[in-house]
Amino acid sequence: MDLQKHAQQPDPTPRSTELRASDADRDRIVELLHDAHAEGRLTADEHAERVEGALTAKTLGELEGFIQDLPAAHERRAAPLSAPGRPAAGVFPADPDDNVVAVFSAAARKGRWRTGRRIHAYAVFGSVEIDLSEALFDHQQVMIKAFSVFGSVEIRVPENVSLRGTGGGVLGAFEVDPQDSPDGNAPVVHVDGWAVLGSVEARPKRGKLVKDILDRVQRTADRSMRKHLGH
């Protein structure tokens, strides 16, 4: 084997600093810059210049450069700027736990209900509403596959979960407002699918919080303790 040739081959896996930045990543850096300016660490000109650069940054590495000389960069070094955009393979079952279908009609899932790991939503000349703001999350990761054809799919999540979107639109609108939860135990909702001459919209519902996160964590801790004591 030609070791020199092998060593020169590029690494196909991008480093974390080369990953594309999201709007949520930019907003977080701008907020840190605002705090630094308020604390007197940045002059008005420095603050304005860095905010402008952060808003147009393309990668996480570029964003980190705007706060590398600030305490916030070192305090947050251990945590990534954003949760992964796509779940790992095999996390979700191939078949949905729940189907929500509206054909020339309306369908909804809302109130106090238990979410599965995978939910499919179909709106064909109709409307689908999936409201997770009061739902019980039995799984940390939830996938919603949304398909809209001349219809609309509206998804609402609590404001303390992470939200991701990877779908698209064909003469339609596919809009997901991504967000990162500061709680590592919070659920992550992934929205995927297509809007064809229709719309798919997923947003946080302000003022609504997942209330069972701490209970779920406590139940897990209790089970682990009982298992440990049983041995």
UniProtKB/TrEMBL annotation:
Lineage top rank: taxon: Bacteria
UniProt name for this protein: DUF1707 domain-containing protein
Source taxonomy: Bacteria, Bacillati, Actinomycetota, Actinomycetes, Kitasatosporales
Domain Cell wall-active antibiotics response LiaF-like C-terminal: residue ranges: 112-176
Region entry Disordered, spans: 1-25
Pfam families referenced in this protein's UniProt entry, alphabetically: DUF1707 (PF08044), LiaF-like_C (PF09922)
DUF1707 domain segment(s): 19-71
InterPro entries: DUF1707_SHOCT-like, LiaF-like_C
